[in-house]
Amino acid sequence: MRVLWEKEIPAEKIVVSPRPVWKCRTCPMYGKRPSCPPHVPDWREAREWVSHFSRAILVKFEIDMERFEEEKREAILYLLKREGELFREGKLYAMALFPGNCNLCTDCPFERGEPCRMPTKVRPSLDAIGIEISSLVQIDFSESALYGMILVE
């Protein structure tokens, strides 16, 4: 995993709608991870929540598709680290948003109906709460890339 760039964006540019959530319903992980619907706030609540931020940091990661799960995990850990740094700088409400379902554990107990092992680290995925990443970046499907976000203040 490699961070290609971090870009600060005005939060007002973030589009939140039901479209990404409906796309989540086609995913085999739908409802199986704590970062996925229906275990996260719905898109209406997320839209209200995002409206209380003035800026966000969008992060583009390059990943090796042959090591997809490991590299996505590294991207998630990077986002959590940046969230922590921002928190220590006084941005008390900084919140990371994952690129897809949480995969912090290689064997997720949540999928078996057991409690999450890392509930203080799980964050919603961008799609799960309705953020239209395609409204912020031009998606190029020939790239091996993931996008994450940190709402800052």
Taking the sheet with the most strands, its summary is: 4 strands, antiparallel
Structural class from helices and strands?
Answer: alpha+beta
β-sheet strand percentage: 15-25%
What is the strand tally?
A: 4
The helix/strand order is: EHHEHEE
The general outline is globular
Q: Uncertain spans, ≥5 residues at pLDDT below 50?
A: none
CA-atom Rg in angstroms:
15 Å
Overall mean confidence score, pLDDT? 96
Helix fraction, binned, reads 10-25%
Summed up, the helix count is 3
List the helices and strands and how they pair.
Blueprint (H helix, E strand, L loop, with lengths): L1 E9 L8 H6 L18 H8 L4 E8 L5 H21 L6 E3 L47 E7 L2
Antiparallel strand pairs: 1-2, 2-4, 3-4
Question: Which tags fit this structure?
Answer:
153 residues; alpha+beta; 3 helices; globular
Summed up:
This protein has three helices and four strands; from the N terminus they run βααβαββ. It is α+β, with helices and mostly antiparallel strands.
Question: Would you write up a description of this structure?
Answer:
- With 153 residues, the chain is α+β, with helices and mostly antiparallel strands.
- The protein is built from three helices and four strands; from the N terminus they run E-H-H-E-H-E-E.
- It has helices spanning 19-24, 43-50, 68-88; strands spanning 2-10, 55-62, 95-97, 145-151.
- A four-stranded antiparallel beta sheet has the order 1-2-4-3, with helices on one face.
- The longest helix is centred in the middle third of the chain and has 21 residues, at 68-88.
- 35% of the residues are buried.
- The model has no long low-confidence stretch (mean pLDDT 96).
